[in-house]
Amino acid sequence: MEQITIAAQTFNVPLRYEECHELSAGEASALNQTYHENIRNNLAKKAKEGVLTQADVDAYASEYQFGVRAAGVGVSRDPVMSEAMRIAKKQIGELLKKNGKRIGDYEVAAINQAAKNLLDKDPAILELAKQRVAEQQSLASADLGDILSGLTAKPAPEAQASATAPAAETKAA
Q1: List of residues 6+ apart from 72 with CB closer than 8 A
Q2: pLDDT per residue as tens digits for the range 1-38
Q3: b vs e for 107-131, b when ≥16 Cβ sit within 10 Å of the residue's Cβ?
Q4: Residues 129-162: pLDDT tens digits?
């Protein structure tokens, strides 16, 4: 049994499918539809950037597995590389601005490639990114209990609704 939540209520639901389960035509159709939608959604960014090829789709589709979470297509999960790309893109934007152009006038793929080229050309950007990430991680690991203890949470939505309801009724009267 698997527990699922429907409208804030928990229910037990049997596991219907197991490995080697023989699918009906309808089940196969539903799985194929989901498979195609997942491929479409996961490759949409590359397609919008104009860099998606049939070979990319074929390769992705052949490797795709349901239920396996993978890093997004073309997205770095490395905080240092993400910060380095952010710095490089900012520098590219500033250079374009000096030349009377805007970063938004260019395709995302072109800006990303220019940022990667800049990182290859200027390793100091990667070093700066390492320093910034280390600093952020240091700050995040600091003991902030004394600061957090003074915070007061907002009231729950139900409490806000009931607190404002009588006032609304008074205004209507």
Answers
A1: 42, 45
A2: 788 888 888 888 887 778 788 889 999 899 999 989 98
A3: eeeebbebbeebbeeeeebbeebee
A4: 999 988 888 777 666 667 777 778 888 777 555 5
CA distances for 123 relative to 79, 87, 88, 96, 101, angstroms: 16, 12, 11, 21, 26
CA angle 139, 144, 148 (to 5 degrees): 130
Strands (E), the chain: 2-6, 9-13
**């960014």: which residue's tokens?**
45
Question: CB under 8 Å to 35, separation ≥6 — which residues?
Answer: 64, 66
Alpha-carbon distance 61 to 40, whole Å?
Answer: 10
Residue in this structure with the two tokens 């050309």, named with its chain if needed: 121
Tokens of 58: 């074929």
Q: CA 72, CA 42: separation in Å to the nearest integer?
A: 7
How much is the pTM? 0.44
